Amino acid sequence: MPALTLDHVSKIYPSRSRGWKKWFSNSGTDHGFKALDNVSLSVEHGEFFGLLGPNGAGKTTLISILAGLVRSTSGKTEVCGHNVVTDYKQARRSLGVVPQEIVYDPFFTVRETLRIQSGYFGLRNNDDWIDEVLSNLGLSDKADANMRALSGGMKRRVLVAQALVHRPPVIILDEPTAGVDVDLRRALWEFISRLNKAGHTILLTTHYLEEAEALCGRIAMLKAGHIVALDTTQALLARVGGVDLEDAFVRIMHNDDALEFTL
User: Fold this and answer.
1) Domain for residue 213, yes or no?
2) CB-based contacts of 203: which residues, under 8 Å, 6+ apart?
3) What is the phi/psi pair of residue 171, to 5°?
4) What is the tens place of the pLDDT at every residue in 196-246?
5) Predicted structure pTM score
6) For residues 244 and 257, what is the distance between their CA atoms, to the nearest angstrom?
7) Whose CA, among 151, 207, 228, 232, lies 20 to 30 Å from 29?
8) Cα separations (Å) of 106 from 116, 196, 201?
9) Could you tell me which residues are beta bridge partners of residue 227?
10) How many domains does one find in the chain?
11) Dihedral angle, C-alpha 223, 39, 201, 184, nearest 10 °
């Protein structure tokens, strides 16, 4: 049983609900915008997996479906064997998501924020783990600071802590190091790498391709809602002939026959 499973998943957004120009067939039917098109993918337990693609490729939609924030139009999605629709409580309990956007409640301190997040999962007396997470993310000296007083980089650290506070077996990092300093980036990857070695499954999206190359054992690349490359990192480099992952990424994204790079 894989940690993450997407089985022929598609997502179509109605065009009029998002203000996009309608695409009509001869019958006049509104087909909407297809953000994901028949995507099948599995991530095994303990993998450090990279999900790459340009803006608008469908990465955020895919993550939103896994997290239960968006319902797919068709197909089946599971987290640790739990269907995200019919068994959503267990699916969400198995998952921790670090979003792209910085969102926070301005009325609480960092520690209060993490205690409240723990409560969402029925966890009490979780302070020992909270302290460990705070320490590993360089937040110990900010534990009693109000969220409003934190810099953008510190707020992003708290987002990571919130995703980890219930010790989920699967962690999704959606561009976690965007706009953060070198110290946080280094501390974050050291901590996440330790969690991965301890058995946690990691799904990473990032535009820093050197991070993906260094950390991810296997990579999928999305383009216009399709998986156009899927293989181990080293095998992708060898098959494409790129000198590094950034070079391979550019070659695949500009190749009209990129589906040849999938397994």
Assistant:
1) no
2) 4, 43, 49, 51, 63, 170, 171, 172, 173
3) -125, 125
4) 999 999 999 998 899 999 999 999 999 999 999 999 999 988 888 777 898
5) 0.87
6) 20
7) 228
8) 13, 31, 31
9) 222
10) 1
11) 20
